[in-house]
């Protein structure tokens, strides 16, 4: 038996967390792994939206990146060229 113990309390608005953690076979091990992963991470994990925002901000700051994507004023903004459609399909399919 371990000599180091900690007690945790769950407030009423965290009952769902308490119910989830009760499903774990070894709660102590589960919590230790989560805490260690947090300690070893350089940055706090960001949600996907925040990660995308950071990436887009960095890309927008890089003027060399934007040059190939400048919109030709002669082309309609509402219509995509076949090349654009193919690029989008290749990226997302």
Q: Approximately how much beta-strand content do the residues carry?
A: under 5%
Low-confidence stretches: none
Helix share of residues? Answer: 40-55%
The secondary-structure element order is HHHHH
What's the Cα radius of gyration?
24 Å
**Biggest pleated sheet:** none
Morphology:
elongated
Q: Number of DSSP strands? A: 0
Overall mean pLDDT stands at 79
Please give the alpha-carbon distance between the first and last residues. Answer: 52 Å
Structural class: mainly alpha
Count of helical stretches: 5
Structure description:
With 93 residues, the protein is mainly alpha-helical. Helices cover 55% and strands 0% of the residues. It has five helices and no strands. The model has no long low-confidence stretch (mean pLDDT 79).
């Amino acid at each position: 038996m371990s000599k180091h113990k900690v007690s945790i309390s769950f407030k009423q608005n965290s009952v769902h967390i308490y119910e989830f953690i009760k499903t774990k076979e070894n709660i102590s091990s589960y919590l230790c792994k989560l805490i260690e992963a947090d300690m070893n991470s350089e940055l706090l994990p960001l949600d996907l939206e925040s990660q995308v925002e950071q990436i887009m901000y960095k890309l927008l700051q890089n003027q060399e990146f934007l040059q190939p994507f400048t919109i030709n004023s002669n082309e309609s903004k509402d219509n995509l060229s076949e090349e654009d459609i193919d690029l989008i399909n290749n990226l997302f399919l």
